[in-house]
Amino acid sequence: MDGAAFCTLFRKNRLLCSISGIFEVYKMKTIQLTPSCKDYLWGGEKLRTEYGIQSELHPLSEAWMLSCHPDGPSYLPDGSTFQQYINTHPGCLGTHCEKFSEFPVLAKLIDAKKDLSIQVHPSNEYALEHEHQYGKTEMWYVLEAEPGASLYYGFTHEISKEEFERRIQDNTLTDALNAVPVHKGDCFFIPSGTLHAIRKGIVVAEIQQNSNVTYRIYDYGRLGADGKPRQLHIPQALDVTLREPPKAQDFHGHLAQCDYFTVDAVEGDFEDVCDETSFTSLLVLEGRGTLTETATGESLPIRKGQSLFLPAGTGAYAVTGTDLKCLRTRV
To answer: Is position 216 annotated as part of the catalytic site?
Structure first.
């Protein structure tokens, strides 16, 4: 190859690389995630019929909308897992997540057609020692509640460990529980160790630690898919349960805030910035519209029942549409 031909080829390759770089710069960064789903015996069909979750499972009890947990990962449009995306995109979670050894958050939609078990989740310390994964602090945002719906949230008064064990044995535990009427828009923060149960007729969005450790205390004598009573975890529950009423929390204007997540409900059109400190997760709870990134100029249609992940550093974005309501989570 002579010098002139080499120079011509070099210029063409530079042009192709430049064009490729332009497309990379202006490629939309926001990702729509597809959930893993669960068919626990207490679930209903609202996640399918009202939130557009696609699954062949019946009932459709839970959709894990933002998850790296091996028990139920979320997926990208190309079929890869959310964890695989994180592994190949260093920095996408933001500087606030550098202190965690794994992705800190798991977000779900939950449809309780029947009562869930009365249960508790352990602290990090207990779970790491006994279960080899982290404990679970969580929050619920009530999306739907049938008239008269309620949930269990801690105790009405402080009780001893001995009384707790006796009430479990003689089936009087619910007499000491704090039964709270619920309505659409209510929010509950549930630190690890808090006894709780979602009851029938409620749909919630749950933001929680990235954990799947649950200790069942009472399950109404129900049988599992194998025809046997579902497993209870009484010794563990006696170890970890806070036997007291829930404490009031001040989240400084947020729905919930802890080391693992900060959650806000955003209604209508809004503009926001996803900076280098944290990713942004958006669960679209109502309505439909468009998400537009300022830096790329790219847009994505959005609707009720979708989960969107904006990598840290995405920059400014705008959400516009009709009757929109989103649950926004950051670290």
So the answer is: yes
* Length of the chain as a residue count: 331
User: Which of 268, 330, 291 lies closest to 29 in space, CA to CA?
Assistant: 291
Instruction: Give mean pLDDT, residues 273-288.
Output: 98
Measuring CA to CA, which residue among 274, 278, 318, 280 is closest to residue 298? Answer: 318
Mean pLDDT confidence for 48-55: 98
CB 176 within 8 A of CB 157: yes
CATH topology for 262-330?
A: Jelly Rolls (2.60.120)
CATH 3.30.460.80 for domain 34-91+101-253, yes or no, is no
Output the CA–CA distances (angstroms, integers) from residue 33 to 72, 77, 96, 253, 308, in the order listed. 13, 7, 22, 28, 6
**Annotation-wise, does 69 bind a ligand?**
no
**Could you state, in order of their start, the residue ranges of all structural domains in the chain?**
34-91+101-253, 262-330
The single residue of 48, 216, 328, 330 carrying the catalytic annotation is: 216
Task: Kindly list the distances between the CA atom of residue 288 and the CA atoms of 89, 149, 284, 320, in Å, as whole numbers in the listed order.
Answer: 29, 28, 8, 8
- Please give the pLDDT value at position 225: 84
pLDDT at 26: 56
The pLDDT > 70 percentage for the chain reads 92
Q: Is 206 annotated as a binding residue?
A: no
- Tell how strand 315-330 and strand 280-293 pair up: antiparallel
Q: Which residue has the higher pLDDT, 27 or 323?
A: 323
Q: What does the block give as tokens for 295?
A: 């830096």
Q: How far apart are CA 231 and CA 222, in angstroms?
A: 10
- Is 157 labeled as ligand-binding? no
Omega before 181 cis (within 30°)?
no
